[in-house]
Amino acid sequence: MIKPQLLGAMEALLFAAGEPVELSRIAGALEIPVHQAEEVIAALQQRMAEQNSGLEILRLDDSYQMTTRADHIGPIRKLAQMRRNTPLSGAAFEVLSVIAYNQPVTKSYVEQVRGVDCTGVIGSLCAKGLIEECGRLDLPGRPLLYGTTKHFLRCFSLNSLEELPPIPQPERDAQQEVTETKMEDFVTNE
Q: What is the pTM of this model?
């Protein structure tokens, strides 16, 4: 008889992994022998089938992965399309602009430019395929770098990033030009 705690731990482990996990790694994580891990997976598969769960556990060579049951894929695709086809908000356009013109950039850079948290917007833009993780910065914490995708170029009818319109420069007033000219004279006269 398999303990309910072990079934729950196996279910949580496979769910959290999100990708195929080798049987030996599963056994190591649960601190049980490989043959027992295989028995627990079989019991979990049986329980999920009996409950007509929307999830199932697939075996892929010597690995296992929790996935959506095939007969539920239709509604999931519809949901993904609804999320993908929602129009971009003003905040999303701002974040997309900062990334497009300055890429690759970190989330903290975007937040510094905008002055607000951008976690949700960046997640949404990644889900829509307009931006993607494109590496890590070689600094403490190794923050992720973001850049635009080919999908971004297609959506905005661009062949390359060089076709982005130039950033408008604010008009400089006459007083600012006079001050800068005087500063240049001062620096060159020393």
A: 0.48
